[in-house]
Amino acid sequence: MCYHLMVVQRYFDLEAPTFVVSLNEKEQHKEEIAKMIYGHFIPHKAVIWRRDADEELRDLVPSSRHMPCVEGRTTLYICTRTCCLEPISDLSKMWETLSKI
């Protein structure tokens, strides 16, 4: 029952972020990005780890098709229900942006 309450809370939280991490072939910075995202208390967040070859994910989350790696670098997309921020592929810029959320 607690899980269902959490889902309802996320549904009504219009500012709840969804993080889409588009990994490059080497999956660079995966651990660092995970520490950044999970190291901050961000209520109701959702995290999607995207790989180019993962066709099943593209079918389940069609919007992830439009979130590729930028210039072959692991890229972070931060979205809410209404909009997405510019894609971030620089690790220090990711840290700076996540600190403000």
Question: What's the structural blueprint in terms of helices and strands?
Answer:
Blueprint: H1 2-12, E1 18-23, H2 30-39, E2 46-51, H3 55-60, E3 75-79, H4 91-100
Parallel strand pairs: 1-2
Antiparallel strand pairs: 1-3
Q: How would you sum up this structure, described in words?
A:
This protein is of the alpha+beta class and 101 residues long. It has one domain (21-100). It has four helices and three strands. It has helices spanning 2-12, 30-39, 55-60, 91-100, and strands at 18-23, 46-51, 75-79. Strand 1 (18-23), helix 2 and strand 2 (46-51) form a beta-alpha-beta unit. Helix 2 runs parallel beside helix 4. The N and C termini lie far apart (28 Å).
Features:
101 residues, alpha+beta, three-stranded mixed β-sheet, 4 helices, globular
